[in-house]
Here is the input.
Amino acid sequence: MATGRWGRDDHGADLVELHRMVGGGRLTTACVLGRLGRHAGCPVLLFDRAGRVVCGDGPRPDPAPPAASVFATVRPVVHRVGEAYWTLVPFERDDLVLGAVGPYPLPPGLVRFLADAVWLVAFSHGRERHEAARLRLAESAFSLREGVVTLVLSGQLATAQRVAARLGDRLPEPARVLVVDTDPAGRDRVAADCAKAGDGVGGGLVWVARCLESERHVLVVAPAEHGEELSGELAAVDPHVVVGVGPPQPLRHTAFGYERVRDEALPAARRAPCRCAVLAPDAGPAWAIGAIGRGWADAFLRPLAAHEPARAQDPCGEDLTVTVRTWLAYGAEAPRRLYVHRNTLTARLRLVGALLDVDLTTVAGQAVASLALGFDALPPDTRDADDASDAARDARPDRNEPPFVALDSVLSAPAARAWAVETLCGVLDAPAGAEARTLRAWLAHDTRIGPTATALGISVAGLRKRLCRLSRRFGADLRTNPPLRHDLWLALRVVDA
Here is the structure.
């Protein structure tokens, strides 16, 4: 067998050169062992005390050294296994053994060579272990932050805030929801790059998570003031990603913000040259009317917010709020989005209706609840605006209570009438008034096809055709868009007042 270059006594300079390469990060432990083996003229591997190969370059030699021999090694020794001879050199501090195998006779000076090289292998392997531990720690920290975002998405805001505080950070309020759409194969890398970009823009207030609903999405929750700035940083992460940015909103509405960004902002971002799209604030009645409706909404929702369950496993007021908000937004899809059985959803909605004293089986009750939740969703700077009327202040029953504004007073605001006229898209001005009558009858009969057709004196097929024409006018299918139905009911109530 060839003696090998490092079988000679003058191998110190070669070890120094190899150490310089290892210190510069240019060689892994496997590469170091491969170079040692080539220069020594025989395979060199790294074992643990159980005799298992920890690292090595190339195929595993056969026969392997006996595990008992490796475990008992305390100084450089040579063991014969069949026709092969194993030279074993233990590490001083770690439970590892450096071994070389070859037929007899062994290269001259092999034991001394391995004894001199063991510190180099120990340095390289120790550095790799520390780097692996650092990566595991970083991944654990990232997973914990993902868990916080998951808690926020599921409506468990108080628990999420406690966990964030234990991590040494806090959740932003108000917040923006950003969704990064990327290829599923590279999502983990994009998520890590988004976390780095977030640290540079918003510090610990930016929270990143891989979306559980879509394998293409990375969800980012950021402070409202940094949302648009951060979108450019996220778009620069990868030339193939697109970024959708939601409007400022309370943190507790993150789940709904994600749905809206996914459905509205991402399609627009795919068409934009900059690969980014920022959504404007919701143009619903609550945004149009403003803070004058805050008192009415607070009084209306107070029984729901103050609800305490009789049993620990029953939903609290916060859970019920998430339930009714999801149901009002998505209708029949709500059980799937809430991960509950439809019977559970029905029972919760029955409880919500009793707490709010409204019939949620009717369009009127749904529209009123939707309006109150819309006021509740206004950002703090909008909600706290001091623009309530003097009449609203005089109407409150107790000076210590928040201003209470009757619903009719809220809907009689000039901003509400302007919004209603725009929302109805000229239906009331259409010739013959057939569309207006159809819309009023359909909403008055709680969107039931049969009773509506009977009330209008037309066939079911004729009613469906009219609803299709109305859907084209409003730009959305009335039968599958609950928020649009609620807005139309409110708009008709405003113009009829």
The mean pLDDT is 78.
